[in-house]
Amino acid sequence: MVDTGLKGKVALITGANHGIGAATAVAFAREGADVFLTYMRLSPEKHGAIGARAVKMAEEPGPDYYYRILGRDAEAVIASTRALGGRCQARETDLSDPGNIPRLMDEAEDAFGKVDVLVNNAAYDRPDSFLPPAELPDSGLFGGDYSLRTVSAASHDEHFAVNCRAAALLMAEFARRHIARKASWGRIINISTDGASGHGWNASYGASKYAAESYARAAAAELGPYGITANVVSPGAVQTGWLTKDAAEALAKTYPLRRIGTPEDIASAVVFFASRQADWITGQVLYVGGGNRM
Q1: CB of 131 within 8 A of CB of 150?
Q2: What confidence score (pLDDT) does residue 233 get?
Q3: What's the CA gap between 186 and 116, in Å, rounded?
Q4: Is-contact 211 119, C-beta < 8 A?
Q5: Taking the complete model, does pTM exceed 0.85, yes or no?
Q6: Rounded to whole angstroms, how far apart are CA atoms 291 and 114?
Q7: How far apart are CA 155 and CA 278, in angstroms?
Q8: How far apart are CA 9 and CA 102, in angstroms?
Q9: SS3 category, 88
Q10: Which residue has the higher pLDDT, 139 or 111?
């Protein structure tokens, strides 16, 4: 059995009421870490969904089911982590408000005394495109499951506020507190996407994640002398409830490993970057996507 060295460490994981964040919280708890979670319940309307009844009743993966998941609290995740013997607390926090960043760190420290590992997983994603409205494809993304809108100041700012600015501010706050207490061991892991270098028909999402990758590399260079590593996990398509069965099967056929990912696949990579096995790894992007990007 591999000892990751995470027993007794404290991990702050954003966007952890479902999907990758939830799986990562459970994975850290399994390694003996204490976990502080953040989440933000989002209404279907926030992501452009229509038909509140359809969302409420949805049981099968796809847009309606995914919008239902986005409205969950973190109680199920808290129960799962505590069942493994670890301590866990959660706070609903709007990361697009910069003032919430220091408050969030204060609450995590009040709960557990310190934060050793920061996982920037929270994300906002509502697909946008450079095409003018009249040229946007009627089908949208994934067989018409997700509609497109034209890039605007609003669509840009909504993505960057959460996916990039919040991650950067959390990294800076984490580093400030780490250095102030003269700590010698810390981990920053940002969750990106393997389309970050140029995500057609999801332009602002990809660009904001690419910026967060750049921040991680800069942090690796600057914070290494203080014992902090900073790395990026870049997933391929992961079934967190957003892909219909048909879309998932079609997409899997294009992946060398012939399946799409699970949240647990990504959580395992995050735990690796946080572990003692990754002590001499920093400033790296790890593509975890079944060979979709090599």
Answers
A1: yes
A2: 99
A3: 5
A4: no
A5: yes
A6: 37
A7: 36
A8: 20
A9: strand
A10: 111
pLDDT for residue 95 is more than 60: yes
| Catalytic pick among 205, 210, 215, 287 | 205
Nearest to 12 by CA among 113, 96, 80: 113
The separation between CA 168 and the C-alpha centre of its own chain, rounded to angstroms, equals: 14
Helix, strand counts (H, E) of the chain: 10, 9
Select from 3.30.565.10, 3.40.50.2300, 3.40.50.720, 3.40.50.10150 the CATH code of 10-288.
3.40.50.720
Pair of tokens at residue 241: 């409830």
Is 205 tagged catalytic?
A: yes
In the DSSP assignment, the letter for residue 31 is T
Closest-CA residue to 161 (of 124, 115, 108)? 124
The token pair at 176 is 């400030």
- Each domain of the chain, given as residue ranges in start order, spans 10-288
- DSSP-based three-state secondary structure for 201: coil
pLDDT in tens, 3-59: 999 999 999 999 999 999 999 999 999 999 999 999 999 876 555 554 555 566 678
Contact 266, 24 (CB under 8 A): yes
Q: Where are the beta strands (DSSP E) in the chain?
A: 10-13, 34-39, 88-92, 117-120, 128-129, 149-150, 186-191, 228-235, 285-288
